[in-house]
Amino acid sequence: MKKGLPGKILNEMRADIIRETYPIGSRLPSERELSEKYGASRFAVREAIAILAQGGFVETHPQSGTYVRDFFRHGSLDTLVQVLRVRKAIDRQTLESLLKFRLITETTAAAEAALRITGDELEYLKKNLEHKKSHPGDIAALSESDFDFHYTIIGISGNTISRLVFQSFRPVYGFFTDFFYSIRGVPEASLKLNMKLLRALGRHDAAASRKAMEETLKFGEKKVYEAIRGGGSVILLER
Amino acid sequence: MKKGLPGKILNEMRADIIRETYPIGSRLPSERELSEKYGASRFAVREAIAILAQGGFVETHPQSGTYVRDFFRHGSLDTLVQVLRVRKAIDRQTLESLLKFRLITETTAAAEAALRITGDELEYLKKNLEHKKSHPGDIAALSESDFDFHYTIIGISGNTISRLVFQSFRPVYGFFTDFFYSIRGVPEASLKLNMKLLRALGRHDAAASRKAMEETLKFGEKKVYEAIRGGGSVILLER
DNA sequence: ATGTGGATATTGGTTATACCAATTAATAAA
DNA sequence: TTTATTAATTGGTATAACCAATATCCACAT
Question: Which of A163, A77, A154 is CA-nearest to residue A117?
Fold first, then answer.
C-alpha cells in the first residue's frame, strides 16, 4: 500500500470512486480544488491521480479534466480486489465465479502437487494443520493458515499463473475465511478434510488428492451458500 | 499506458528494472540524479516511481533510497505481463503453466457457454470466424480475431474471474498468436477447429463444446511445442 | 432570435526552488 | 579503537509560476 500523504489521498479518492460518490463518467474536481479539499499540495494529488489512472479507475484529458472510467469494464483482477476491499460486499455472480474458478484450478493443482510434493513440503503442510489444530477458536489464525495451506499447494503444483491469481486475492481472502470459520462446526470439519487431502498428497496419489481438494472446496461452498441463503444479490463480507 | 513525460520515464525505468540493469535489491539512483539523467524535473521522476512502487517493482525507504523489489515474488499477474512485454521471452515453466491454465479454464468456459449462449452471441462468433476466413494471410487480423473469439466465449460463460484473468493477458496475447498463425497450415486447421466449436455451441451441447475447445487448445499446444523444440529454457516471442 | 468568432478563464503538464526530517557517512574527540 | 558529533544526502512536501490546449461565454453580425 502507498504510504504518506499521497497514499491517504489515493485511498480516499479511490473509495469515493468505488462508492460512486464520483459516478462513472463524471469529471473529478480540478487538481487545484482537490488539493484544497485535502489540504495538500497539487503534487500529492497528482501522484494519487497517476496511480488511479494506472489502476484503470480514471483517465485524464489534458486541459479538460480527469474522468472516472468504467473500472469494471477496463479493470483487471487487482481492480476487482480493490473494489471488494472497499465495498466489503460481493455480488452473487462474482461469488459464484470465484468459487467455480477455485474448484477447477485448485483440484487440478492438488493433482499436480501430489506428483511433485517433497518431504519438506509435506512437513510444512503438516505443521500448518497442526497450527490450525492448536488454535481452534482463533479465527484470524485459522484464516491465515487456510490461505497459506491452499497457496502452498498451488505453489507446489508449479503453475505460475494459478499462483499469481491466487496471490491477487490475498488482500480480501480473509473476508471469506473469517466468515467461513465463524460458522459452527466448520473449523473441525474443515481440518478433517484438510488432513484427508494431506494424506493423499503424502501418498502421491493424484486422483485422491484431486478428490480430497474437491471435497474441501465443495464443503466450503455448501456452508457459504447455506449461510447466505436468501441474502439477496449482494452478499456482505463484513462480520 | 501512462502518457507524457512521466510515462516515458516510467517505461524506461521499468524496462531497466526488468532487464536487471538495476538488479533486484539494488538501490536506484537518487531522485535528483534520475531527474538529471532523464532531463526532467524531480516530480516527473517521483510520479514514475510512485507507479513503479504501486506495481510492486520498487519500494521506497525515506531518507535512504528507492530499492528494486523481487517483483516475481511480490508481483501480480499484471507484473508478469509487463515482464513478458519487455523481455519478449517466456521461460518454459511459465509457458507450460499458461497453456495448462488455459486448458482447464477455457474448456470449462466452453461447456458453460454452450448452456448460456444466445442467438446474437452465436451470430457475433460466426462473424468473427467469417472475418478470419476472409483474411487468411493477415496475421495481425487473425491474432486479433483469435483473442476476440476466446474472450467472447469466456464472457458468455459468465465467469468474471476467468474473464479478468484472460483480459490481463491481452497486451501480450499477440506475441503468442502472431507466432502461432505464422506456422504453415495453422490458420486453416485452426479455423476448422473453431468452426467445430461454434457448431457445438450452437447445439447447446456442453460436452461437445468442451471437447472441441480442448481440441482447439491442444492443437495449439502441439504446434507451439513442435516449433520451439530444443529451444532451451527461455522461448523468444519475437518474430 | 440565432448562429458565429474570438477573447478569456480554466485545466492538466511541467519546471524551479526551497525547506523539513531522518538517515548515513565522514569527521573529530575520547 | 571506539564513541560522539557533525555534515551531507535522501525522500516527503509545499509554494509559485508558466505553458498550451480546451471550454466557456459574450459581443457581434446575420
Answer: A154
Angle at A126 between CA A124 and CA A128, to 5 degrees: 70
Tell if the CB–CB gap between A51 and B50 is shorter than 8 Å. Answer: yes
pLDDT tens figures, A186-197: 999 999 999 999
Here the cell at position A62 is: 489534458
Strand A89-91 and strand A234-236: the pairing is antiparallel
Look up residue A232 and give its three cell numbers.
439477496
Question: Which H or E run includes A58?
Answer: strand A58-61
- The pLDDT assigned to B170 comes to 95
Q: What is the pLDDT of residues A22-52, one digit of tens each?
A: 999 999 999 999 999 999 999 999 999 999 9
Query: For residue A135, which of A70, A66, A190 has the smallest C-alpha distance?
Result: A190
The string of DSSP codes covering A147-170 is HHHHHHHHHHHT-HHHHHHHHHTH
**Full-prediction pTM beyond 0.85?**
yes
Can you list the alpha helix ranges (DSSP code H) found in chain A?
4-18, 31-37, 42-54, 71-74, 77-87, 92-116, 119-134, 139-157, 160-168, 170-181, 186-202, 206-227
Burial class from Cβ neighbours inside 10 Å (0-12, 13-18, 19+) for residue A232 reads exposed
- Sole residue written with cell 493477415: B138
Contact between residue A220 and residue A176 where contact means Cβ atoms under 8 Å apart: no
Angle among Cα B42, B53, A60 to the nearest 5 degrees reads: 70
- What are the pLDDT digits (tens) for B90-145? 999 999 999 999 999 999 999 999 999 999 999 999 999 999 999 988 999 999 99
Instruction: For residue B72, give the nearest of B87, B88, B83 by alpha carbon.
Output: B83
User: What's chain B's average pLDDT?
Assistant: 93
Nucleotide nearest to A41 (CA to C1'): D14
Neighbours of B183 (CB within 10 A): 15
Preferred mutation among A2, A51, A76 to probe B, highest tally of B CBs within 10 A: A76
Q: How far is the CA of A10 from the C1' of D21 (A)?
A: 27
pLDDT class of B239 with cuts at 50, 70, 90:
low
Half-sphere exposure of residue A100: CA atoms within 13 angstroms, side-chain side: 20
Query: B57, B50, B53, B59: which is closest to B82 by C-alpha?
Result: B57
The pLDDT assigned to A239 comes to: 57
Rounded distance in angstroms from the CA atom of residue B19 to the C1' atom of nucleotide C23: 30
